[in-house]
Amino acid sequence: MTACIAGEAAESVVPASHLLVPLVVGFVAAISGLVVGKVPSQVNRGSQAVLGVMIGASLSPTALHQTAAAAVPLTIVTALTVVVSLAAAALLAGVARLDRPTALLGMIAGGSAAAVACAEDVRADARLVAIMQYLRVALIAATAPVLAGWLLASPTPSGDSHPANPPAWHLVTGPNQGAGLVLVAVVAFAGTVAAGRLRLPSAALLGPMLLAATLTMTGTTAGFAPSGALRSALLTVIGLDVGLRFTRSALTRLGRLLPLALACSVAISIACAMLAWSLSKLVHIPLTDAYLATTPGGINAVIATAAASHADVPLISSVQSIRLFCMVLLAPLLIRLAARWQDRPDERGHD
User: Domain segments of the chain: what residues?
Assistant: First the structure.
């Protein structure tokens, strides 16, 4: 409860406050010895499942319609962003001697909360993943408004581009709160069970995400994406779980890793800015819109910046949501491939 209230209080000054502040609270509690242990595994898996519902429900026919005209260039940009993330992860793993799952999840561009949530499932260090992901989120949140203002030569208001905020008491995005909450529970449970039987990686996250996306994209139902207090509580659990995992040995390792992780985050951000420039030229959209649509994460800060800058919020939020979905879907598969590739020399050595 304390972590949730602190996250709410810091929302206006801290990027991703409902994740970062509980992480810090959990960190302090663990290091000081006030709390021993982790968030219960059932609570942790439940939070992953609801997070999967939230990500899957962010896709919609409207989102695809917004990006249809630039589908091919956006696909290329997304693929190149994955390549850049993989290159940074390979560098980090090689120079810092970091295991590949941790390096890849730490460097994957987009889906910070999902990367942290599924870290344990793929045997990655959730503490290091969280630090690397939110280091980049903080970097983007701090620089996006400045760069957007610099790129805008003559800002022109775009009418209704500011997204409508649901009432503060809403727990899901639709008007029928009771039915929406029931649907969240059903999709989270059914998706997790189905993914487990299909032996999907990170079943608690990917199963509900794929099921929610299917229901939304087919128009079967809508308005059940977690929002408001439910979203805040969900992110609080994920942040607190990571914070409680810290130890003094992890802090020593983090201190050595931080400069290289920061350099990799800056490199990824610069590469994505270059991709934004190419996208702007290819599909003839303003550079500000292209930049905000392709930033490597920090979706909440980016959309807030877009609204304040009178940029094309529907386009930016659609591109960010679709890329978020792709990154979360690809990350466990990429980690499996990387682990197999890493194991091959050992296998040959034993022949």
Answer: 2-8+21-30+38-152+171-343
Q: Which residues contact 54 (CB under 8 A, 6 or more apart)?
A: 212, 225, 226, 231, 234
Evaluate the CA torsion angle 145, 147, 150, 152 in order and state its sign: negative
Q: What percent of the chain has pLDDT over 70?
A: 83
| Residue-by-residue DSSP string for 168-230 | TT-SBSSS-HHHHHHHHHHHHHHHHHHHHHTT-TTHHHHHHHHHHHHHHHTTS-----B-HHH
Q: In sequence order, what E strands does 75-188 have?
A: none
Residue type, 294: T
Q: Is the pTM of this model over 0.85?
A: no
Largest CA distance in the chain: 67
The answer on pLDDT for 162 being more than 50 is: no
Instruction: Report in angstroms the alpha-carbon separations of 6 from 23, 71, 75, 229, 291.
Output: 11, 40, 39, 13, 31
Q: What's the confidence (pLDDT) of residue 271?
A: 92
- 33: DSSP letter: T
Query: DSSP letter at 165?
Result: P
CB 93 within 8 A of CB 125: no
Specify which residues 226 forms β-bridges with. Answer: 172
Tell me: the pLDDT tens digits for 164-207?
A: 555 656 798 888 899 999 999 999 999 999 998 988 777 888 89
Question: Are the C-beta atoms of residues 316 and 293 closer than 8 Å to each other?
Answer: yes
Average pLDDT over residues 208-235: 87
Fold (topology level) of 2-8+21-30+38-152+171-343: Na+/H+ antiporter like fold (1.20.1530)
- Amino acid found at 11: E
Which residue type is seen at 221?
T
